[in-house]
Amino acid sequence: MQPNGIAAKSLHRVLDRKTLDPSVNAVCALAVMTKASRPGYVKTRLVPPLTPDEAAQLNTCFLRDTAAAIAQAAGNLARGISVYTPSGAEGAYIDILPRDFQLLPQRGDQFGERLALATDDLFRIGFESVCLIDSDSPTVPSAIYAQAARLLSIQGDRLVLGPSDDGGYYLIGLKQNHRQLFEGIDWSTDRVLEQTVQRAAELKLPVELLPTGYDVDDRATLKRLCQELLGEEATSTSDIAPETRRFLREIVGREGRDRIWPA
Known about the structure:
The protein has an eight-stranded mixed β-sheet, sandwiched between helices. Helix 1 crosses helix 3 and helix 1 runs antiparallel to helix 6. It has helices at about 50-75, 110-125, 140-155, 190-200, 220-230, 240-255; strands at about 15, 30-35, 80-85, 100-105, 130-135, 160-165, 170-175, 205-210. It is globular, with a radius of gyration of 18 Å. The longest helix is centred in the first third of the chain and has 23 residues, at about 50-75. By secondary structure, the protein is α/β, with parallel strands linked by helices. Helix 1 (about 50-75) links the parallel strand 2 and strand 3 (about 80-85). About 35% of the residues lie in helices and about 15% in strands. It has a single domain (about 5-215), classed as Spore Coat Polysaccharide Biosynthesis Protein SpsA, Chain A, CATH 3.90.550.10.
C-alpha cells in the first residue's frame, strides 16, 4: 500500500473501514455497488442475446455512466464511492471510474448482508449519510443523485428510496445506520420496496421517494433500454448514458437491431 491509502495497482484510494476519515464529515457517500467486469460473472441474465464478453462490456458501460452521473451530482455535498467485489480487483476500475472516486471492498455473502455491511462501513469511516446505488440502472440522471444527497442533508432522520418499477429500488439513502432495513427482506422479488417501506414505518422513519427508474437485467429490459437510447424519442435523452448508448449502437450498426433489439 502506498501513502494516503493508494493501492499500488489502483489509481483510486481504497478506504479502510477501520479508519475514521475526518475529510468526509458532513459528506454523503454516493456509493455504487459493483462487480468487476469479468465475462461469465456479470449480467449473466443477458446471455443470450449478448455473449459473455459483451455482457461484461455492457457492465463496464453501465458503471461508467452511473459513476459519471454520480460525479456530476457530488459537488460539495457528496463523494463518489465504488463498493466493489471481488477483493483484489482494484485495478479493474482504473479506466472506468472518475479519478476522484474512492473504493471500498464489499463484505458479506448474501445481498442484504452486503448492503448492510457496506452501510456500516461507510458510517464507521465517517460519512454523515449514505446512499447505496445499484449498477443496473444507467439511465438514472445525475439530478436524481443530487436530489438524494440534498434530502439527506436536511435536519432530521429519514429514508430516501429510488423505486424501480419491478418492485425493488435502485437507491437507498440513510442518515443513520438502521440495519433493520436490510433484514427479513425478500431480495430479488417484487416485494423489496414494499417491505422496506413497511420496515421504515415500524422504525417511525419518514420516507422520501425519488422518481421511479428501472433495472436492466433481462431481455425485456434490454429491449426497453435500446428503445430509450436508440429509438425515435432518443433525442430527448441524449445526455443520458452515453457509454451505454455508444456500445448498443455499435452492436446494432454492426449486426442489425434484431440481434439485441427485436422489433
